[in-house]
Amino acid sequence: MSDTIVVGVTEASVTKRAIDWAVRRAVHRRQQIELVSVVGGAIGAVGEGSVMETVLDATRRMLDEEAARISDAGVRVTTRVAAGNPVNVLNEASAQAALLVIGSDYRGPGAGPARGAHGIRIVAGAKCPVVVVPDIDIHDRTGVVVGVDGSPVSEGAIAFAAAEADRLGEPLIAVSVWTPVSAPRNSAMVYPELYLSNMQRTAEENLALSLGGLRAQYPDLVIDARAVKGYPSAVINTLAADAKLAVIGTHGRNAVTRFLLGSISHEVLQRLATVTVVSR
């Protein structure tokens, strides 16, 4: 398994948050950092060569400055500048990485429009877990939130989240969200109490099964298990708004689902509430 954390670097201010997050994890896990910046937009026009070389040189200097900034952290740092499509380059880099870390200039719910598809395409096509860092100060927040649905992908998300919660000394907030069968908005549907209570009980039982063994593996880890009625992405982002980290799984298995990620992952990433990991 690779011990390299790849960080996508741009001129956006959030990049420093992304790099600093990666460095903190690399120090604790004894990993190394590769800073990657991608220069796009070349179309082969006459005279483009000299322009590209100037831009590539400036980008190398930017990476060197970032590498120098974190040089005292005690981790090995390498840099790489590539020309091409950022989505493709970072997805290719992820094949040899333990983690891919990218930034998002989204500043949280209520701070502007939802994010576009660029970062989501990177996450969807990556071969390793991806950490998306929003431009939000999470210093005073507490907890690691993980979405649980009982699937094998969810098991991977739980394992990642538990390891991170243990590393950070934070409680693990494991949430299983159940949603009643939807009815037309104008219907007078009233859900029977027996149905609702059985849905709640089933969610609680599945959650307990999914978390089985964690306490033996992490005896000092505080686990807060919650079965909640609602819509998954809304519940996860509400909890994540007070958390240091959120972890979700993606079920993408083919070209279409890798691009779309699945509605829940897509919706969580569009309105980031904290640093969010998409595991596989």
From TrEMBL:
InterPro entries referenced in this protein's UniProt entry, alphabetically = Rossmann-like_a/b/a_fold, Universal_stress_UspA, UspA
On the tree of life, the source organism's domain of life is Bacteria
Domain UspA per the UniProt entry, residue ranges: 1-134, 144-273
**Signal peptide residue numbers:** none
For this UniProt record, the keywords arranged alphabetically read as follows: ATP-binding, Nucleotide-binding
Question: What SUPFAM superfamilies does UniProt report for this protein, alphabetically?
Answer: Adenine nucleotide alpha hydrolases-like (SSF52402)
Q: Which family does it belong to?
A: Belongs to the universal stress protein A family.
Protein's name according to its UniProt entry: Universal stress protein
Native source species: Microbacterium pullorum
Q: Taxonomic classification, please?
A: Bacteria, Bacillati, Actinomycetota, Actinomycetes, Micrococcales
